[in-house]
Specification:
By secondary structure, this protein is α/β, with parallel strands linked by helices. The chain is built from four helices and five strands. It has helices spanning 12-28, 46-69, 83-91, 116-124; strands at residues 3-7, 31-39, 74-81, 96-102, 129-132. Strands 3-2-1-4-5 form a five-stranded parallel beta sheet, with helices on both faces. The longest helix has 24 residues, at 46-69. The protein is globular and about 45 Å long. The structure holds adenosine-5'-triphosphate and manganese (II) ion. The site of adenosine-5'-triphosphate has 23 residues, from helix 1, strand 2, strand 4 and helix 4.
Length: 136
């Protein structure tokens, strides 16, 4: 089954992208892969790292639940590394037709055109990328 990759940082904007990912998955009969990358540049002590992981597990599970409730198949993945690199790695693993992600995330300055992760992914992806802004 073909896949739509939904990379999330748990932000409101990623939530907006989730709705688009679900709509496209229904239209294209795809499953949605929910991916979070724990950023390895944030050199944290073991307890902060555990906390981050717990938080990530929480929002990834929430996304999974939402997607499943709308009748779309879904799998989840939490990995560590550089976000854009890991996103592209998963996108290239095969069967990923499309990446759907936010224009910005949790940490971005609103004046920047795109967040750094979105910018790097869209510059280097060999798959189509749908960038979703915050929908008010
Ligand atoms: P910056 O990180 O450069 O300060 P930002 O946080 O506003 O800016 P991005 O990080 O580029 O913007 O976020 C854009 C989108 O990329 C998010 O909505 C989300 O879909 C995805 N994303 C961002 N960080 C991660 C991550 N660590 N793991 C998975 N997806 C991510
Ligand atoms: Mn970010």
């Amino acid at each position: 089954m073909n896949k739509i990759l939904f990379p999330t940082d748990g932000s409101d904007i990623a939530e907006c992208a989730l709705e688009v990912a679900v709509d496209l998955a229904k239209a294209k009969n795809c499953e949605v892969v929910v991916l979070h990358v724990i950023d390895d540049k944030e050199r944290l002590g073991p307890s902060a790292h555990e906390t981050l992981k717990k938080i990530a597990e929480g929002f990834v599970e929430n996304a999974k639940k939402k997607i499943a409730e709308s009748g779309v198949k879904t799998t989840t993945k939490i990995v560590e590394g550089k976000p854009h690199e890991e996103i592209l790695k998963v996108a290239n693993e095969g069967d990923v037709e499309l990446i759907v992600m936010g224009t910005h995330g949790a940490t971005g300055l609103p004046r920047a055109l795109l967040g750094s992760v979105a910018d790097r992914v869209v510059r280097t992806s060999t798959r189509p990328v749908v960038l979703v802004p915050k929908v008010e």
